[in-house]
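Customer ticket, subject: "Can you confirm the structure for Cysteine desulfurase?"

Message body: Hello, I'm evaluating your service for our small team and ran a test protein. I'd like someone to confirm that this is what the system normally returns, since I don't have a reference to compare against.
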Amino acid sequence: MTTLDIDWVRSQFPAFSAEATADWAHFENAGGSYACRPVIDRLTRFYTERKMQPYGPAAPSAAGGAEMDEARRRLARLLGVETEQVAFGPSTTQNTYVLAQAFRSFLKPGDAIVVTDQDHEANSGPWRRLAEAGIEVREWKMDPATGHLDPEALDALLDERVRLVCFPHCSNVVGEINPVAEIVARCHAAGAFTCVDGVSYAPHGLPDVGATGADVYLFSAYKTYGPHQGIMVMRPALGELLPNQAHFFNADTLYKRFTPAGPDHAQIAACAGIADYLEALADRHGVAPEGAHDVMRAAEVQLLKPLLEAVTNRNDVRLLGPADPESRAPTVTLSVTRPVEAAEALAERGIIAGASHFYAVRALQAMGVDPERGVLRLSFTHYTSAAEVDRLIGALDEVL
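Agent reply: Thanks for trying us out. I re-ran your input and got the following:
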């Protein structure tokens, strides 16, 4: 496996050299990653040179539209899908809400959907509200001790009435990576569509969405080193069935059908910088563009090992999710007595961490954790250094 060139990687993120952030160790990446330089440069250029209605005949206007198209085209390639399948929206939460409204009109009373108690509320709440329209909502429950979602347990929930199954690629508190392709295959065999929340997985390497077979795959650009946009990938077969949620004259364009508001031109254009960075990372390490995923994940697994060993050897914390670094994302959530005080104490030591329920109220309740108290979350990505992980482990010994 190619070893990640951590010095080169960190040189691509201005935050590591900026006076305001250089001395901080960032361990709340699950709440938002640093933006890479290509994204920042593209955003600056758009606001400086192209801040006008795109796609017009004037050169600056045409350049803005071309850059928006470039972002969609290049991200589609990295995701293993067609360009028309990639849509942008103001956030993943908003994209999911709009999608749920489309399903509200598409489904009939008596139809059923399946949701999980492992999800972030964005991929749970909008779907559960379909019960108001007479849709039966079935819950695929995780193991309360481990947080594991057993694919075999899903089978008992699937029958001819189930039209949609919504589940996370990776929970933002449990951290375990769910076998998306296997789950999607089970759902399709039962005649159900699938909606996969990839927000907590995509920052650790964009997946081959086409290979998973997912009908909808959602993630956030601001957690994948870009601007604050939600990205939704949808298979045409489903998109053509669902009722249009946009202006009537946009109904024939798949990537516009589920974006009722006008797009954020500058931020969409800047998303091409995500592709710039990932392709440059792949080139730096001598792999194909899609190989950036494996290089990033390998580096994260190596960093996860000492952190997981450190927290599992303690008897004063409870690790949510698996202790195996290969089977989880580097989102390490700990149930501790005083998470807010712990995060504050870490901040005093120059470490950015989070303390909250992180919109995973149902997941915490299912695992017997009080959402009002919350949990301590330590999350990183491939750009985190071994020295920062060592620093975190040492600080945890002092704080906990």
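A couple of notes from the result: The longest strand covers residues 162-168. The chain has two domains: 6-35+291-399, 44-274. Feel free to reply with more questions.
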